[in-house]
Amino acid sequence: MDFDEILPDLGEYGTYQKLVLWFLLLPGTMPCGFHAYNQLFMAFTPEHWCRVPDLDDKELSSEVIKNLSIPYDDVSGEYSSCQRYDYNFSQYMSSSRYLDGGGILGPPPDAKVIPCDNGWHYDLPEYSTSVVSDWDLVCDSSFYPTLALVLLGASGLVGNYIFGYIQDGCGRRPAFFIYLLIESAFGIATAFAPTFHWWLVCRVGVGFTVPAIMSTPMVLAIELVGPGKRTYTTVIMNVAYSFTLILLSGVAYLVRDWAQLSLATTIPFLAFFFFWCVLPESPRWLLANGRLEEAEKIMRKMARVNRKQLPENYMANLRRKHEIEKYMTGKEDEKVQRSYGVMDLFRTPNLCRKTLIITFIWFTNTSVYVGLSYYAPALGGDAYLNFFLAGLAELPTYLFLWPSTEYWGRRWTLCFSMVVGGSACVATVLTQNVLSRLDPTVTLVLYCVGKFGISASFVVLPLMASELYPTVVRGMGLSVSAVAGMIGPIVIPLINHLGSEMMVLPLIIMGILLNLGGIFSLMLPETLHQHLPQTLEEGEEFGKHWTMSDYCACCPKQPSSMNGTARKMSTTDSVLQDRLSDGAPEESFPVSNLLKSQDQERAIEDTLGGGRTVEDVSNPGTRGSDDGRQQHHRVSFDESSLASVGSINRRRKAGSPTYTQSPSPEQDEEEHKLIPTSRKVTVV
Length: 684
What we know:
The protein is mainly alpha-helical. Helices cover 57% and strands 6% of the residues. It has a 3-stranded antiparallel beta sheet. The chain starts with a helix and ends with a strand.
């Protein structure tokens, strides 16, 4: 049952959707943004140098101490962070040979250089602490903060895969609160970690829910509104996420202690558990999973809040339509609800192709976004300001996306954004060592252009992916693609740790991949003005028969309601015709011979069962007879329910999922006995 066909009666974007979106789903993006990036501030590496106990009790400035005890690199213009001079500091200073008219001569010329052996001094701002400084994660242990980022991404990869099953199996609403519970528990535990290893365990637990906790509000928001508001909803959700990053920079600036920052970015979200009473389940997901009674309650509330008047028999007709659709697709006798797995995304060729393309694009987007993030220090200034500017640079993206996705369509907007972002990424590498030395503004401009392109593609891609994946596997499909995308953030920190000079090669590779992803995005079907596919069959059919001219087309126009209705009927009608023309035995499919004679058409009521409006018009000679024949009934159906009986002449081969055209003149004559002369069709 297509929820998009029901939404106009309930309100596609009324007061109900606005309240849920603005007061529940938009705040729901904050836990993901805070916990994905607060680790950058908790584990930042401050400037440090070797501690020399012989100089600690001297009343000397830090600059004099560095000059006496720390080697200076003339190439980089910085003091060493992991080496010091080894000589008798007290004896050397008592001889006054290190002074020359008040000037500092530095260490003796024959001073030996050794690694730091007595700890480090850290240049920390006032009231600031860091995991790195508390547990001396520098020099030989400098890999540990990088390891924490790698494990955060790896745990998110695993969690995204698992929570995809939870979201599609248990529902959107329970999934969000499961994520929130796990994230809050480990987020609070992070603040009380006694050692780095326990801190690392807590970060892995937090990473288990990132970015899975973001996908649930996003999917729920898209599934609650009609096709005309999907772009608006997606853009608004991403605007909220960008503001979350800006807000995090302010929170991190005010709370400089890493343990307090962990609490400040976790405890406020405990209030979200009160959302349990008001956050609705997705009625689209409920309908797709056959939970009609639960969907009815939400739809009635939606109509009431949106001030939509529904006929008294609206829900009864809805249940009737649901039963007919179940019967026509051969599901009425199923006692166990079908479960879906990852392999369902790859069983059919068209859906498999779309899944692979979406996954590749997701990988390139995530990798390049993280790669550009490592160039944030090139902006200059402190880390808090840089992070603030990085979040602020994303906001102009949405001014471009809003009209472009509605006019150009999803495909061309995604292609343009990725090509622009990839080109800026490559250009940043090519100009870093040339133009940036002449004018640092060049690097800043290229960074902002690249961030603009990457941010735009990150908005369009989840929107387009959620519109391409069928409802029954939508959460799973998004999770699979996001899991593949998170391989990039796992690998890039390792490459970055090897040295800044090695950042050139991965950024060039990712820039090329991003441009390739932009080209591949044009191989996806356009989803603008289209109904969301509900079942695997609809997902396979969507875009299956596109031609080269369709793929090259831009600026799709909204189809007429008649064409849209015809398209929506095609799958259901073909199933009905197949069942009517397969010639199944009467005991297994009682109306398989429905079209053989006009008398047998009356058997449809006994097959469809109760819950329908039936008027008994049995003949006197047959009413109550015991001759084993079925009673005669007159059953009224909506015209759309039986339109295919007179218009679809497709037959499915036995044992084959494909359809072939094989009309029979005799069958065609019998089918046209059902002539829709008015808004109702009567079978007599």
